[in-house]
What we know:
Shape: globular
Number of helices: 3
Number of domains: 2
Structural class: mainly alpha
Order of helices and strands: HEEHH
Number of strands: 2
Strand order of the largest sheet: 1-2
Radius of gyration: 15 Å
Largest sheet: 2 strands, antiparallel
Helix content: 25-40%
Amino acid sequence: MGYPATPDHSEKRELFGLLGAGDIGMHLTGSYAMTPAAAVSALILAHPEARYFTVGRINRDQAADYAARRGVPVAEVERWLRPNLGYDPA
């Protein structure tokens, strides 16, 4: 996560909990970087017609919809997706 197709690192918190990553010594920093430094995460999709994609600029209504679906404040979504926002969240 955190790459052009999956820019929201905060999803790692839930995934780490579901996978029990702490049980094998993996942790997340305050900015959702993984430790130890050699830790890697990925979403792997295999299909002959699969193509890599980039998330385009996110509009205010899309950020609000995403926040509602995740059950988090819009300000939190804006914090983590700031580089992808198509508006100034000021």
